[in-house]
Amino acid sequence: MTEVTLSNVVKKYGKHQAVHGIDLGIHDGEFVVLVGPSGCGKSTTLRMIAGLEDISGGEIAIGGRVVNDLPPRERNISMVFQNYALYPHMTVRENLGFSLKIAKRPEDEIAKSVTEAAGILGLDELMERKPAELSGGQRQRVAMGRAIVRHPDVFLFDEPLSNLDAKLRTQMRVEIKKLHQKVGNTIIYVTHDQVEAMTLADRIVLMRDGHIVQVGTPLELFNTPVDTFVATFIGSPPMNLVDGEVSGGTLWLQGGIELPVPSSARSLVRNGQKVRFGFRADNLMPVGHSVEEEGEIAELDLTVTLTEPLGTETLLFAELGGLEVQAKMFNPRPVAPGEAMKFRLMLDKTHIFDAASAKAIRG
Amino acid sequence: MDRNLAHRNRRRALKTAHFIGLFLVMSIICIPGLWIVLNSFRPTVEIMAKPPVWTPSFTLDHYRAMFGGAGEGGVPVFSYFRNSLIVSVVSTLIAILIGMSGGYAFARYRFKGKSGYFVGLMLFRAVPGVALSLPLFIVFARVGIIDTHFGLILAYVAMNVPFTIWLTDGFFRQIPKELHEAAEIDGCTRWQAFWKVEFPVARSGVASAAIFAFLTSWNEFALASQLTRSVGSKTMPVGLLDFTAEFTINWGGMCALAVLMIVPALVLTFIVQKHLIAGLTFGGVKG
User: What pairs with residue A35 in β-bridges?
Assistant: First the structure.
């Protein structure tokens, strides 16, 4: 059983505080992704779990054992680094077997474990090569192999895919997910890429400025963001946000656009409350090119300023009250910039945030 | 077609000019060395001949005289060679050990006044060794380590350490810190991570620092000429002076001893050279 528990964990560098007392419980076998913009403290948190950074306050426990003062080698973890950190003077075989050799395991056991790991990751052909003779994707696989050879309690990944090109990144993402399904260990994975977070995670931990903003499954974060930061960080394209004010049952958006307050929020907003109105591109569609859905629908006349055809859909940039918002057109037809179109907005899929606190207003 | 030809001609001309330039520069560097080697095999009459004799004859007289006279009032070549070897090897070993620890500390750890120390070390390099010879002489004489191997080794270690620190610092800096972190996660202690991972990777840097330190000590003259005086401690560069008498200079003998000095340095450089180049091919980490 290898839960990882962080209680009130703090990291300070001199006067600067990088991590502000975070609490997090990670279950056995769970794939947790720490995500956030650079400088949010996610890598620092991971490095504290690994034992590469001292903990300034709080407690970290792995498998029920407090590890605050244990060096990395006694935590039974493995880590895959952004730059792979393969030992350049060793062959792939030696790289894979290094940890077992340090642990003074018998030769035949080392050979067996190394062969097994190489088999899982398809490295058999490369065993006698040095890291310098490998491609980026192969190095990445060796780094993962080195991590699984020693059967650790927890895998830590620190932005492992950011040095790969886009195509390889997608491919390796799939391999990492398969690896997790195969070995089933607890994985803590750090990335700044929300797509990676969405696709890989059982649970996402979204961080900002050393605080945890929201923890939840990818769909929870996508569908019920707690504030405007989560709303714009998760999902691609980011959620459209328009300033507005509530007046009776009406929402006055900037530029004088009038919308009914979605029924779910009607009892939660005050008269005269300043809000930010959020909706995703997927829920603003030109009439005749939408996914037909029942529900509350408002119609808007908008002028298209730019189009990005993506194949099955086209991303439309349209002007709304002096602001550029994004919409999605399914079954696309060519659209010329400047064309006025009628759009359907799925009101029951929209979000209302308080303008002052940026927090979601939700029942 | 014409333009192609003109272009090719220009490139050929440039290449020729390049070679001539290189040849001139290399001549300036190599001819004195060649002169020494050739003269060590020529009779004294021929060395001094005016106009010069262009077709050299070959003799081993100078070597015979040098080695033959070693025990009988001639130049004690073997003692000088032994002194040089002891002083250079020991001072290099110590300088490398200190330099490696220092360089590693500068590259990996943060501590108070770090840049200050570093600048201080570099400033120390800027002081010419000769300027220190008189104070060193006085201090060494008082302490009683003048004219000993120990004294000279001490002086050379002090001279070489700033340089070895500077060089190994640069090499350790090139090694990403993730390497030792990965090693620590793989089960190493900090010390094992250094010996099993970082040191082998930085081996080329350490080797080049070592060879520079060795050559500095091996060839050093100014300090050694002040701090040594007897056969028991004089090094070869100082020993060369034995060939100058009041009115004559034994050019042939001097050249022979110089060749004896060059050979070990040359051999060592060739041995280490492989490391110098091979170790520079990094690749475990994508930067």
Answer: A191, A206
